[in-house]
Amino acid sequence: MKKETKWFEVGENESITECIERMTTDGFQIAGRREEPLFAEVDGQPIPVRQLIMLKGIKEI
Known about the structure:
Blueprint: E1 3-9, H1 16-25, E2 29-42, E3 45-60
Antiparallel strand pairs: 1-3, 2-3
Pfam family, one: NETI
Protein name: NETI motif-containing protein
Organism: Psychrobacillus psychrodurans
């Protein structure tokens, strides 16, 4: 069986649980998580704005 992989971004106004529910609705199971800071430039300096969370989903085709 072949497996499809897709990254889901947790929305700014979305909880991780809501994102997981969205994944399972699409037929994916959670297989990993990745976080990275999101920056904005203010007065020439990078300022952290929020944490970007991505969930890896796997679905058997």
